[in-house]
Specification:
The structure holds two protein chains of two kinds.
Chain A (H helix, E strand, L loop, with lengths): L1 H18 L3 E10 L2 E2 L6 E3 L4 E19 L2 E14 L5 E5 L7 E6 L3 H4 L23 E9 L8 E7 L9 E6 L4 E7 H8 L6 E2 L4 H7 L2 H4 E3 L1
Parallel strand pairs in A: 1-11, 9-12
Antiparallel strand pairs in A: 1-2, 1-6, 3-4, 4-5, 4-7, 4-8, 7-10, 8-9, 11-13
Chain B lengths: L1 H17 L26 H12 L11 H4 L47 H4 L1 H5 L8 H10 L3 H9 L6 H13 L7 H6 L7 H13 L14 E2 L15 H4 L8 E2 L21 H8 L20 H12 L4 H4 L8 H4 L8
Antiparallel strand pairs in B: 1-2
Classes of the chains: A alpha+beta, B mainly alpha.
Chain lengths: 224, 344
């Protein structure tokens, strides 16, 4: 009987491995202009005519779809990935189809998930991407310092979240892409030039400013 | 034959892994269906016990002094009495009166202003609040993991001794979901096990005419938000629901509390401004109409002093001493203080 059980489990494991398709990986590469972004390094930003440094850069990726001629041919529905420059900027998922010409994903967490109680893994509230005072995920977090910020210790903090109308900050981005290994750049020079560091230093709740910042994502995610 | 053996064996193996004793939430037939989706967090005795330990353990606060029970005392139907505004860590005083906790499975939204949309994530607010527990969930998880007690309890409950924020919050939800108040005199009358006195019966009629549209039976709240005509407290400047939605229509709206267990849950209102039920009724009969007043209160409530007495007599039938003194809901001495415990 025990032998039977072991041979059975062996078969199941073999089967699972054989079926497992080669994963598709997406690597996010934060840049500052043409340079690879490094945390706590000073960069000069022409838009403010001064330098700045980035201390935290995290965002959620969810709702990934592989597209062909503008149509979704594969959806990675349950996948929620926290990208964190200090930790990991790469995600992978399995897909039987490889014949796609673009990739679509959400930056942020959808409203159903936001209203559905506590979740684990990358969505665990211990990841410091969930607001305590008001329910909801922080979709995108960028923190750093620049002398142009007239805040305590010259910090800027963009905690972009909100899942309810009119401040649903989830954004969908579509990038041309092919192959198993996709690299997507995120240009923080372009992003921070758009944010307006001199005037907007702190966003920490769902509001109109957060929406303006969220709308910038589309313009700064780029295929390599 | 071999194939049949395979199938039977795999069936038992799967069954062995999935058979957990599910704890059934018991509530009366006249209660609506719970709002909380129990499928997302199936109740088990082990998880409820763990949640109870966490609820009563000050380890959730920064300096290990404040537990959930500090402001949600079982003997006060899990409310905080004696203080208009609840106090937390270092005796700091907050801005609101901690609400009673019961029948939480039927709440659609949480906190006086509805800042929290699900029971699972409610605990994050008091844990993080600088005047309540001043801690963060990540630190709580670290402290629990380093403790002697909790890895064992999490292993028992979640089959995993590695503690996560998700499991902490789900366990807390589980214990709180079991806090069901449905054994008051009103409930016995509903179940034809008791009868109202003539005075209570008359009070019940007055209740149905004047109060039931917001404090809807059998839960005695529709758990929506209303502006009940209270003037703003100039020291607190608390605009309630407006703080969250920023919609002017939500100005001074607060979540409608249940009227069950009123004798245990004073003071009343979000800022605890009334200590006696009489004061509450006097407020409702003297509301001044305004643009922002909830429509249910536009027509003035008129009660003479006999009617007020009758109404209060009915409201007192909503006290649920069986719930309030239920030892299952109290400090789990056998878990948290096993050396002194006598139960195990």
């Amino acid at each position: 009987m025990i032998k039977l059980f072991f041979s059975f489990s062996f078969l199941v494991i073999c089967y699972a491995f054989c079926l497992k398709p080669e994963p598709i990986t997406i690597t996010f590469a934060p840049k500052f202009g043409s340079a690879t972004l490094q945390l706590n390094k000073k960069y000069f930003l022409p838009a403010i005519n001064d330098s700045l440094s980035i201390e935290t850069f995290k965002f959620y990726v969810s709702g990934i779809s592989l597209m062909k001629n503008g149509k979704a041919i594969f959806q990675n529905k349950g996948g929620f990935y926290l990208m964190d420059l200090e930790n990991k900027m790469r995600l992978e998922f399995g897909s039987a189809t490889k014949d796609f010409d673009a990739i679509q994903f959400n930056v942020g967490i959808d409203s159903t998930t936001n209203a559905g109680g506590v979740k684990g893994g990358d969505l665990d509230p211990t990841k410091n991407m969930y607001w305590a005072w008001q329910s909801g995920y922080i979709n995108f977090k960028l923190e750093g310092k620049s002398k142009v910020c007239k805040t305590r210790n010259n910090v800027f903090q963009y905690h972009i979240g909100g899942f309810m109308h009119p401040n649903n900050s989830l954004q969908t981005v579509t990038i041309p892409a092919t192959g198993n290994s996709i690299q997507i750049n995120f240009d923080l020079e372009k992003f921070l030039s758009g944010v307006g560091l001199q005037t907007t230093n702190e966003i920490m709740s769902p509001n109109a400013k957060a929406m303006q910042v969220a709308k910038l994502y589309k313009t700064v995610f780029e295929a390599q | 034959m071999k194939l049949k053996g395979f199938i039977a064996l795999s069936f038992f193996v799967i069954l062995g892994f999935t058979s957990i004793k599910v704890f059934e939430l018991k509530y009366p037939s006249y209660f609506p269906k719970p709002v909380y989706d129990l499928k997302t967090n199936p109740l088990t005795q082990e998880k409820i016990d763990l949640g109870k330990a966490l609820f009563y353990d000050p380890i959730l606060s920064k300096d290990n002094t404040i537990s959930c029970a500090s402001c949600h005392n079982s003997y006060q139907a899990f409310a905080h009495t004696d203080h208009q505004l609840s106090h937390g860590i270092n005796d700091l005083i907050g801005t609101r009166n901690a609400p009673a906790l019961f029948n939480l499975a039927w709440h659609t939204i949480f906190m006086w202003d509805g800042a929290v949309n699900h029971l699972d994530v409610q605990a994050l607010a008091p844990i993080a609040h600088p005047k309540e527990m001043n801690e963060n969930l990540g630190n709580v998880v670290k402290k629990l993991q380093a403790s002697k007690l909790y890895p064992k309890l999490f292993l028992k409950a979640f089959k995993d001794s590695v503690i996560t924020g998700e499991h902490v919050l789900k366990a807390l939800s589980q214990f709180q979901l079991t806090l069901i108040s449905a054994t008051s005199k009103y409930d016995r009358v509903k179940q034809s096990k008791a009868k109202f006195t003539a005075q209570e019966e008359n009070g019940y009629k007055l209740f149905l005419e004047n109060c039931n549209s917001c404090h809807t039976e059998p839960l005695f709240s529709n758990y929506k938000f209303a502006n009940n005509g209270l003037s703003i407290d100039s020291t607190l400047k608390d605009y309630g629901r407006y703080t969250i939605t920023k919609q002017s229509a939500d100005s001074l709206k607060f979540k409608i509390p249940s009227l069950r267990n009123l004798s245990y849950t004073n003071p009343y209102m979000h800022d605890g401004r009334f200590n006696k039920l009489n004061q509450v009724l006097n407020h409702y009969v003297s509301i001044k109409d305004s643009k922002v007043l909830s429509p249910e209160l536009k027509k003035p409530i008129q009660l003479n002093s006999n009617q007020k007495t009758d109404l209060i007599a009915f409201l007192l039938t909503l006290n649920d001493s069986t719930f309030v003194f239920n030892p299952d809901n109290q400090y789990p001495k056998s878990i948290l203080m096993p050396a002194e415990g006598t139960r195990k």
